[in-house]
Amino acid sequence: xxxxxxxxxxxxxxxxxxxxxxxxxxxxxxxxxxxxVDELSGHHVVVTHIRxxxxxxxxxxxxxxxxxxxxxxxxxxxxxxxIALREIDHQVMVTRxxxxxxxxxxxVIGEAEFCEVAA
Length: 119
Fold this sequence. Notes:
Keywords: Plasmid. The protein is α/β, with parallel strands linked by helices. The chain has helices at residues 13-24, 34-39, 53-61, 99-118; strands at residues 2-7, 27-29, 45-47, 65-71, 90-94. It has a five-stranded parallel beta sheet. Strand 2, helix 2 and strand 3 (45-47) form a beta-alpha-beta unit. The relative contact order is 0.23. The model has no long low-confidence stretch (mean pLDDT 85).
């Protein structure tokens, strides 16, 4: 599974990536390239900095999803760099304790794994 995170700087990308690594055995990386995705094929990967349309296109071409992180205390500017969220992408509200965000991410991963098994 391939997940790319987007959101305002400091909203919690690294915290979410650390959770995914600990709870779901994801490998975390800051940037996405075709070469890196090839190198890590067969592993769950979370990319902490999806910053523009090019990154989002690489992610989409490889079957990944975008998770746009939002902080309830800050104005939401939407995904950066003209990134358009697709129907399969998600927005997650990150609170101080992150539990709701983690719960939603667990469900997203569970649904994706179910769809892979069913296919």
